[in-house]
Specification:
Length: 314
C-alpha cells in the first residue's frame, strides 16, 4: 500500500512538473523519476562496498538492470503494450547499451578502482548535463502562447507557476521517500530469508536485493501505465539502468574499491548486456512497442535467469 500510494503521488507530480516546465514527461522520467527510483540501488551497493562485499554491489546492479527490463518491462507489456518514442530508440536506448558495454573494460580485471569509479561518475554527470541542456532547448523552442494554452488546459487551478513547480518537487520527494522506505522493508526481510536458505551473497544481491530495490520502478511503471503515461514508464526503465550502471557502480567504487568474482565479469555480465539488447530488438520488432508477446518473452527470460542463478550459482 505504501509503495502504491507513493508511486501514484510520484507519477502525478512528475506529469505536472513536466507540464509546468514545458518539457516532455520522457525527460522527467529519464532524470528525476529514474534517479529517485535508483536511490535504493545506490544505498544498497554503497553499503555492500563499505563492508567489502563487492559481489553484492555489482550483483545488485546486474540483477536490478535485468529485473527492470525483463521483469518490470515484461509485466508492464503483458498488462498493456508499451509504446516507445522514436527518439528513445535512437538516443536513450543506444546510450543504455553503450553504458553497459563501458563496464567491460572497467571490470574485466575483476576489481573496481577508485579512479575507475570516478570515471563512471564523470560520464554520469556529463549525461545528466546533456539531458538537462536538451530539455531546456526543447522548452525554449515552444512558443509562449502554446505553453500558456497547455497550462490552462492541464492545470487551470494553479495561479503561480513558481509555487506549482515547488509543490511538484515536494510531492516527488515525498513519493520517492515512501518508495525507498517500502522497498527497504521488503529487502530486509528478503535478505534474512535468503541467508537462511543458504544463498551466496552474490546471488542474494542479484535476486532478493535486486528485485527489492527494483520495486520502486515496478510500482511506478504500473501506475504510469494505468494513467497512460508510457513515456514515464519507458524513461524510468531506461534511465534507471543508465543510472545503475554509472551512478551506482561509480559511487560504490569511489567510496571503497573492491574486487568481484570471476563469473560477474563473464557470464553474468553478458547476460545483462544480452537482456538490454533484447529489449531494444523487441522494441524494433514490435514497431516501437513492447507488445504482449514481447512482454511474455522478457518475463520468461527473467524466470530463466533466476533459475540459472539458483541452480548454478548458489
Amino acid at each position: 500500500m505504501i509503495l502504491w500510494k507513493c508511486a501514484d503521488l510520484l507519477v502525478s507530480a512528475a506529469v505536472a512538473l513536466a507540464k509546468r516546465l514545458g518539457v516532455s514527461t520522457l525527460v522527467i522520467g529519464l532524470t528525476i523519476v529514474a534517479m529517485g527510483t535508483s536511490a535504493p540501488e545506490v544505498a544498497a551497493s554503497i553499503s555492500a562496498a563499505v563492508r567489502g562485499a563487492g559481489d553484492v554491489a555489482i550483483g545488485n546492479v546486474y540483477g536490478s538492470n535485468i529485473a527492470n527490463l525483463a521483469l518490470v518491462g515484461g509485466l508492464i507489456a503483458l498488462i498493456r503494450p508499451l509504446a516507445i518514442q522514436r527518439r528513445t530508440i535512437k538516443r536513450e536506448m543506444p546510450v543504455m547499451i553503450l553504458v553497459a558495454l563501458l563496464l567491460w573494460p572497467v571490470l574485466r580485471n575483476l576489481e573496481l578502482s577508485r579512479p575507475e569509479g570516478l570515471l563512471l561518475l564523470a560520464v554520469f554527470a556529463a549525461l545528466i548535463l546533456l539531458t538537462v541542456y536538451s530539455a531546456r532547448k526543447e522548452a525554449k523552442s515552444k512558443s509562449a502562447l502554446a505553453a500558456e494554452v497547455i497550462d490552462k488546459l492541464v492545470t487551470p487551478q494553479v495561479k503561480t507557476p513558481a509555487k506549482s513547480v515547488k509543490l511538484c518537487l515536494v510531492f516527488i520527494a515525498i513519493g520517492l521517500a515512501g518508495l525507498a522506505f517500502g522497498a527497504d522493508l521488503v529487502v530486509r526481510g528478503g535478505v534474512v530469508i535468503g541467508r537462511a536458505a543458504g544463498l551466496s551473497e552474490a546471488v542474494i544481491g542479484q535476486t532478493i536485493i535486486a528485485v527489492g530495490t527494483s520495486l520502486p520502478e515496478l510500482v511506478t511503471c504500473i501506475v504510469a501505465l494505468l494513467r497512460k503515461e508510457d513515456e514515464i514508464s519507458v524513461g524510468n526503465l531506461v534511465g534507471s539502468n543508465i543510472f545503475n550502471t554509472l551512478l551506482v557502480v561509480g559511487a560504490a567504487g569511489t567510496v571503497r574499491p573492491f574486487a568481484i568474482a570471476a563469473r560477474l565479469a563473464a557470464a553474468d555480465y553478458w547476460i545483462m548486456v544480452a537482456v538490454s539488447a533484447g529489449f531494444v530488438v523487441l522494441t524494433l520488432i514490435g514497431r516501437r512497442k513492447i507488445t504482449r508477446p514481447g512482454g511474455a518473452v522478457l518475463f520468461c527470460a527473467y524466470v530463466a535467469y533466476i533459475a540459472y542463478l539458483l541452480l548454478f550459482n548458489r
